[in-house]
């Protein structure tokens, strides 16, 4: 039996004890502009390293404030035309759909914010669409939002389903928080967008170079060999 390792090192059963290889024979081939190196090595030896140190004890002062209410909100947000957002959420009442006059791109897909003693951790499936491509149900929700929601302040309206009190208070706080921090959130959004555009440009101009693969292999004696079986 032959054991194979990809790369220059192999981790043993203890991740704190890496292995090293003694190369006995080496062969290199070239495929699609890359070299592939085959190393026939002696069975790897583990390097001894000191045991990991104990995890630091968290100071009492950094523990969560018992007076703070931590809440998790999971929902989907589809932004249409960079203007209105369709919110869909499953809750204790079975779920609901709402339309908001806030562009939820400014919140991003994952994040947190605090209002009073409540800290919200939110996870949203975020998407951007154009209203001409919306399905009839979403088009009706958007039309209802245009007819009922003001341009300002931030507001939303439930168009289908019935939201639980917890869900209502959460989305009330989303809109209140945006109303109080709109300038900073919009600025942070455009900074994130500019950074992402620069990173994408750098990747196009300087694509990462894939490393040439190295395959280390060595023979091991199978359980059949060790048992002396003739099978």
What key phrases describe this protein's structure?
231 residues, 3 helices, alpha+beta, 26% helix, 4-stranded mixed β-sheet, 6-stranded mixed β-sheet, single chain, 34% strand
Oligomer: single chain
Helix content: 25-40%
One letter per element, helices H and strands E, the order comes to EEEEEEEEEEHEHEH
Largest beta sheet: what is the strand line-up?
Answer: 9-10-6-7-8-11
What is the CA-CA span between the terminal residues?
14 Å
Based on CA atoms alone, the radius of gyration comes out at 29 Å
Helix/sheet category: alpha+beta
Number of domains: 2
Can you walk through the features of this model?
This protein has a six-stranded mixed sheet. Mean pLDDT is 81; it is low at 7-16. The two termini are 14 Å apart. It has helices at residues 136-148, 165-205, 223-227; strands spanning 2-6, 19-20, 23-31, 34-41, 45-46, 69-80, 84-89, 96-100, 110-115, 118-129, 156-161, 214-219. It has two domains: 2-46 and 214-227, no CATH class; 67-180, no CATH class. With 231 residues, the protein is an alpha+beta fold. 14% of the residues are buried.
